[in-house]
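Bench notes, afternoon.
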Amino acid sequence: MRQVAIGNDIALDDIAFRPCGAKITADIQNSATDTIDVCEGNMNTYTFTGNASSQYQSPVYHWQLSTDQGITWNDIPGATETTYVRSPTMAAGKYWYRLTVVDATVAGITSCRIASNLLIINVHPFLLANAGPDRV
């Protein structure tokens, strides 16, 4: 008697689900990378720019922020253009940004949004150095 294997016994599937739509890209102006590392108290502003495919007839934009490394995303109030100017952040932490786009016909359905690549600002805390008491 011959046995026939059914299914995928050897390889593992790497399946991810996301809304289907055109590609969205985001950049940090004047930066060669999508990640910037700064120290706590840095007062620089950063301009984020996004680009959506011309496939969207009436695009609706929302910049989003995650402070828990992408577990939860929140719309940034008023950030509804293809450009967003990030104000300085005084607190140390990891700040992840992305641009989401959806066509106006389904703008009320947040699960239909397509998200861009991530833009990350890492704000590192100041390190305190202690060499001990003064000596002569």
